[in-house]
Structure formats: structure tokens, C-alpha cells
């Protein structure tokens, strides 16, 4: 087995590693029909702005998402700063598949299916840590940091034909990173991560490239469970500034100096929404006085320096307030340094995992202010996060009812207003628009209607 190792661009000089092989073939002959695919192309009318509500509640559609969305898309795994020394590991999911991200002895980050090849138990049960190998607690099969089977009790009871190299942990064939964020893809022939991100990188850079030293995560990973389909959260972070003044009215009142809410020129601030053919989306107010909400963070930044390092357009747009989603289920909020992934847990449930990302150059008091601001606003008990979770659970509550599920949803805001702006890359529209939502579901329908790599 050979490997192609790609450098991670931070001070640690780590590597991510991609095997030059696809998943191993086996000797099984599975019957047809176990994974039946539905034709869902007619359930999304992205041009007319209508969505069939059953895509949020149908179990068969959900299972098809696991095969055709999550098994072929670039999925967020972890932040580079979570891996400092060989043996560092972090357990997460790709769709519903449990995986382990780990740094091997060559300081390469691997992503391995957390599934013992003997009886299928997880070989790692800890959320994160540092280890020399992974040992299954069922029968004791042990694997090294590259996933190779290195020992098993009673090995002499197997025939001479048994080869340990045939029973390694399954390695995710593509692992790549961008500005500190590590993504993985089960499709060996998937387009490079940078191509999948496209012009979205310009908007991401406004969040991830403010500091020449890069970023790091602090405070661990916060996790909570919500009732609601994962797409509801991904869609909102891609396209929906529209809900802010209504859903978050009480939070905005609490945070305003007067207690009456933001001034009209702030509440009705205009901006931009970005969208692309890969289903990525971002929205943000555009104003020369855009700033960070936490006062110590605002006072820390040299906005003139950032206009030179980035661009004036990035500083007055996506650097501060805003929202974004990388298709399918990774989102971020620049104003408080929040990154999060919406892990699907069935058609009506998701598990939210959230990190706080900080610039490496931030002094301790500034970093603390940003971390606490993130926790208070978009932590599980945050004043904004609670509103969002309530909305998603309410939207999901009766999604499976007969008349409800046969009533289409409206995604027509801003339809036909998409344009090309010389100051902002890609296709943009006004801040109040469903454009990125229509694009997300257009991409969803495209992948759901196209055979994936494992079906060919």
C-alpha cells in the first residue's frame, strides 16, 4: 500500500495522508434491492422555489442521503490544532459512520473507520486523547495508528491463508485541509477540496486568514442533540438572515445598550448572500462600520491591517457578522468564532458539535472574551442558539403528517435577483434571499439523483 501525503499549512507542519487505494473488495455477493434508491428529482423545484416537505421526514430518503450525499461529499472532521503529537486522536462521524482521526508516527493525520474488522465493535470509545494503538475490547484485535492489524489473541488458531494486512481498519481514501480545517471524503476520485470550495474560499478566508499565524480551537467540543432534520440547520446557516429580527428579537433587546433592540439602521442593514453550484452559501451585512460584537475583540483588531491583508470588501462584509455553510453539513459564524457540524441522527434528529476558533495571535484576555461571547450566544444554552433550536424542532414536529407533508414549502425570496458583483466573488444576491437555500437543495437533488462511486 502506498500513500500520498499533503502538508497542512500551519506552524505544526503536520500532514494529512491519502491512501492510493479504494476500499477493499470482499468475497460477498449481496442481493439486489438492499439499497433501493428513490427518484427525488421532482421533489426540489429550485427554479420555481418550492420544496417537497417530505425530504425532511422520510426514512428512505434519509437512508439514501447516507449513500449519495455523505458517502461522496467532503465532510468536516476536525481542526488541525487538535493534533500536536503522534497518537493524538479525535472520534467523530461521517454521516452516521463512526471514524477516528489520528496522527501517526510520521505526523500524518489519518481518518479510519471506527469499526473492528472482526465483529464490528468500535475500537475507540474515548472522544479524544493520545494513544499508541487502538484495541477492540470485545476480542482484543489491536490496530496501530495507521489502522494496520498488529496483533490478535489466538492468532495460531487461524489458517495459514489468514493475512493480517487484509484486515486493517478501513481508511478514508481522501483527507485534505484548508486553512486549518480538515475534511475527508470516501470517494477516492472526488474533486480536490479546494475545487469543491470554489470561490467560497474568499469568504472563508475573511474568517480563517485574519492572522498570519493561523487559528486554533479552544474549550474542547460542545455537543448537544436537537429534534429536527440536519438540513434545516445547514440551510439556515447558508441562506437565512431573514429570521434574525423576528426569531432573535428578545436576544437583540437584551444585547442592545438601551434594552429596546438595535437601531433601525442596524436592524435593517443591507448586505450580500453568496451561493455556488456546490451548494455552499454565505450571508452577511455589508457596511463600512461592521465590527465584532465582543468589545475586547473589536478593540483588538487593526482594521486597517486587515484591509491590506485581506481586502476592504472582506472587512466590510464577511469578516464579522454573517453566517455560512459548506455543503452538506458544516457551518460557521465569524463574529464569535463558532464552527459547527450538524451530525444526522435520523430524519428527525441531529447532533450538534461546536468548536470555538480563535486567531493564534490573540492575547489571553481577548481570547477569553471571544470564547465566552460564543458560549453565551451560540452555545447550547446561548440566547441565539435556543431560538434556532426551537424553530427547527417546531418545523420538524408535524413534518410527517399527511396534509402537512403534501404541502410544499416556499423558497422564492429573491428569486431571479442573483447577479455578479465585481467586489464579491461568485454569484450573489441581496442579504434577504433564499438563493443559497435554493442552491443547497439543487445540489442535494443532483447528488441524490446520481449514482455514487460505490454504485458504479
From TrEMBL:
InterPro entries: ARHD_Rieske_2Fe_2S, RHO_NdoB-like_C, Rieske_2Fe-2S, Rieske_2Fe-2S_sf, Ring_hydroxy_dOase_asu_C_dom, Rng_hydr_dOase-A. Residues 74-172 form the Rieske domain. Signal peptide: none annotated. This is 3-phenylpropionate/cinnamic acid dioxygenase subunit alpha. The keyword Iron-sulfur applies. It is an enzyme of class 1 (oxidoreductase). Its EC number is 1.14.12.19. One of its GO terms (molecular function) is iron ion binding. PANTHER family: 3-PHENYLPROPIONATE_CINNAMIC ACID DIOXYGENASE SUBUNIT ALPHA (PTHR43756:SF1), CHOLINE MONOOXYGENASE, CHLOROPLASTIC (PTHR43756). Belongs to the bacterial ring-hydroxylating dioxygenase alpha subunit family. Pfam families: Rieske, Ring_hydroxyl_A. Keywords: 2Fe-2S, Aromatic hydrocarbons catabolism, Dioxygenase, Iron, Iron-sulfur, Metal-binding, NAD, Oxidoreductase. It comes from Corynebacterium occultum.
